[in-house]
Amino acid sequence: MTGLPVLPSDATEIHPEWLSQALTAKFPGVAVSSIEVTQQRQVTNAHAQLRVSYDVSGGAPETMFCKLPPSDPNRREAILRTGMGEREVKFYEQLAPRLGMRFPEVLVAQERSDGTFILLLEDLNASGCVISDGRLGVTPDSAAGALEDLAALHLRYLSPKTRASEASWILATSSSSDYGSVMLRYGLENYRDRLSDEFAEMAELCIAHPAQLQELWHRGPQTVIHGDPHIGNLFFDGGRTGFLDWGIININTPMRDVSYFLTMALSVEDRRIHDRDLLSHYLEIWNAGGGEPLSWDDAWLAHRIHAAYTVLASCQVVTFPADVTLQRQVFAAAFLDRAQAAVADLEARAAIRSFGGF
After folding, report:
1. Where does residue 266 rank: exposed (0-12), middle (13-18), buried (19+ CB within 10 A)?
2. What mean pLDDT do residues 113-132 have?
3. Cα(299)–Cα(351) distance, integer angstroms
């Protein structure tokens, strides 16, 4: 989607004239009269809620969610280097219309060659949807539907020809950064008493063998995956699970999505009871849909190996920053609980030892 040459760098810089022009492609004739920023917060990126008044609405909504790069200069530069915003804009523009998954409605999606971007999306609260605070998990029935949606994505882009024609900008990723290792080491040195033995052992392995683990986590058939379907990147629309935050979309094995979803989106109790049945459900769809055959034993082993990724994904959580909001503390605690339970229950360390040999 093309747009104005300069993007707002903060939600307070979104002015009526700019927003009117940005919304025109979707809502012809729209004329914005005023904008109120009702909420702002810094997460990975900058998030804000907007209330918009119109001279002419053209069908545009009164409230919307705004996503921009972070305002802190150092964090902003780091995030822009990742290309997360650019990928998410491209996803909503190019892939989302081809998929039957539940996403927020896209109102404005713009990005620039310098990595800056802006997303204005459906206000999910106003739509009656629910976003978990971390403690509420996806129900088993809703999880089955979400796995069907993920399988459809995975199967569509299993063919290199389809990826080249529809998603050539999506690349395989394998982190070479020591970002996660540094944070895990800090957590081990300063908060070891707050971490389980199984989690700590796995953290040490992540620090000592990052390249070998990345190789294990990329084995299997290759396709487009969401890359980050934990409970914080999902929402509930009645009985259906919707998907948020597509900035880490990449080419990888579908088992990364499946295992990470099972371990980090369901409650611990539901995952313990239902993960075998839900994995079987996914495999039935994958194998029937023409995917490279995955046996139950191979998929279950992959699920156990990918459970170790939850430790690396918890790298920011284990630093236990003192200046985070109560809301983030609640979410972080629920996130860490899921990761620690998954590593222990699925015996991730033993799976890596037996298959990876280290």
Report:
1. buried
2. 95
3. 12
* Neighbouring-strand partners of residue 66: 48, 120
For the domain 140-356, what is the CATH code? Answer: 3.90.1200.10
Q: What is the SS3 assignment for 253? A: coil
Domain boundaries along the sequence of the chain: 11-122, 140-356
| Tokens matching residue 341 | 């339970």
Residue 1 pLDDT: 45
Assign 35 to helix, strand or coil: strand
Cα–Cα dist 176/160, whole Å: 25
Contact (Cβ atoms closer than 8 angstroms) between residue 343 and residue 199: yes
DSSP 183: H
Pick the CATH number of 11-122 from 1.20.120, 3.30.200, 1.10.530, 3.40.50: 3.30.200
pTM for this model (two decimals): 0.95
Equal fold, 11-122 vs 140-356: no
- The residue with tokens 């545009």 is 60
| Burial label, 325 (beta-carbon count in 10 A; 0-12, 13-18, 19+) | exposed
